[in-house]
Amino acid sequence: MERRAILPLVLAALTVQPAGLAEPGQATEPSSYEVPDDALPQRPPSRDLRQAAERYLADRAALLRFRDAPLSAARDRALKQFEESWLAALDKVDFNWLDQHGRVDYILFRNRLTYEIRQSELSRKRTAEMRPLIPFAETIVGLHESRRRMESPDPAKLAAVISQLDAQIRTAAEAVAQGRLKAEKAAGNRAAQALVPLRDTLRRWYLFHNGYDPMFTWWVTEPYKRADASLEKYAAALRERIAGVGKDDRDAIIGDPVGREALLSELAREMIPYTPEELIAMGRQELAWCEAEMRRASRELGYGDDWRKALEHVKTLHVPPGQQPALIRDLAWEAIAFVRQHDLLSVPKLARESWRMEMMTPEQQRINPFFRGGEVITVSYPTDAMTHEQKLMSMRGNNIHFARATVFHELIPGHHLAQFMQARYRPYRRLFNTSFWGEGWALHWEMMFWDLGFARSPENRIGMLLWRMHRCARIIFSLAFHLGQMTAPECVDLLVNGVGHERENAVAEVRRSFEGEYGPLYQCAYMVGALQMRALHKELVGAAKMTNREFHDAVLKLNSIPLEMVRASLTNQPLTKEYVSAWKFLGEVKGQ
User: Fold this and answer.
1) Domain segments of the chain: what residues?
2) In this prediction, what percent of the chain has a pLDDT beyond 90?
3) CA-CA-CA-CA torsion for 66, 68, 69, 72, nearest 10 degrees?
4) 345, 553 contact by CB (below 8 A)
């Protein structure tokens, strides 16, 4: 059945509301949001935008909790109007009256709002690509939104709606099976993924009424069960017939390239004035430096210029099963002592003592084969349930020297310390949070530890270089994938042949990149953010304007914001209301 033919049935199944409530079919339009007068800075006393940021976050979260139906046109309109209202209100703020922190906040706030407005249009385009595969989505969304408006249902009519919904799903499934309904693999996979929250939305709608309304249960239960089963089967059909992934193919990586326009939008949000092609070229340059250092370490170990043989030797240097937690503990303490010995930054006593350790499950290791960190460092190491080959790969990929190069990245002075400080200094800036600061901060410490001689042996250096090469490769394969220049299997091959990862670990890393919850620039953020941090460190510490401790403490207290604005804060750079990113921290880079 055509989508337009089924929507009147949804509306007809809803009874007229008591006085004061919207008529069915009319309340799908979002009411206009107005920015409260007291949300923006008032004179006196505030001269920054912390109050506005906190109000924006709270109001946006409330809006999203209410309008939580996936693929809802009403939700999209409400969000767009919300962002535009804030942008208009922000424009009325007296920029010159703000202090330096307030001006930074203003620029970041405007940047965030314009990004959200751009993204809403890009999101609509991507949704439109898969709409033909899920023509029944609006029916499910309409049912959910009627419940949000607390409209009283007509069970008999709703039974007809759900029956016709089931018929429409079956019709689409038949068209896919017969090859009459086609789409690109990525769009098919996107549609299959969209069916998961749609199915859950229908389930929540059903459970809200079922058992509480006897007539609803009597009429709707049977057609609902059929529609729910059809949704499950159709999602599997989309994955198999269009995305090309069988139900038993657990290792397939589909991904969903976002394209150059979306990458440029993301770069603008991060205030990175380089193109994707220029960043790929930079990644290749950095990778070449790493390979030269790998060869030097390889020669010291007696393997000549064949650094891959030297790397294979390092992979065999792992602790026996059961001893990995003790290794991680000792490496964490060693790094903390190194930081204090060189007076690199302040480490509060509570931060030193409050981090914890957990072990990663085998299923989690399919997505992330290495450590994850923060206040809790999650350790990746084989369990008895893994196959012999999986055990060896996990042990080799988490050997002593690889671990020594990453424990401090995850704990102190890396992610744990950063998150500890972010919770205590300018926490409202979580609105502007960026992985270029978060991951760049952690990788900056890997580079600094390298410069200060933390690596005491060729094996130590190879361990550190492996991860540095890994971050270079991440820039290359993630951007090339989203530009349509590399496939997922080619990305895996780059990590295996160009970096030296175990294949299963490389597959997990690529899956994490393209099927996890990460944005398209996340994998770039490590190296690019670190090079931004390194350039700023050279500008201030290298020129003896600040000590290491002063610099790092100051960066932490500004919280996680685009690093161009960290620079503007630390250098007291003159700022204008219409400021545009211009910091060429890499110099001029020639693209591919």
Assistant:
1) 31-66+72-131, 135-242, 263-570
2) 75
3) 80
4) yes
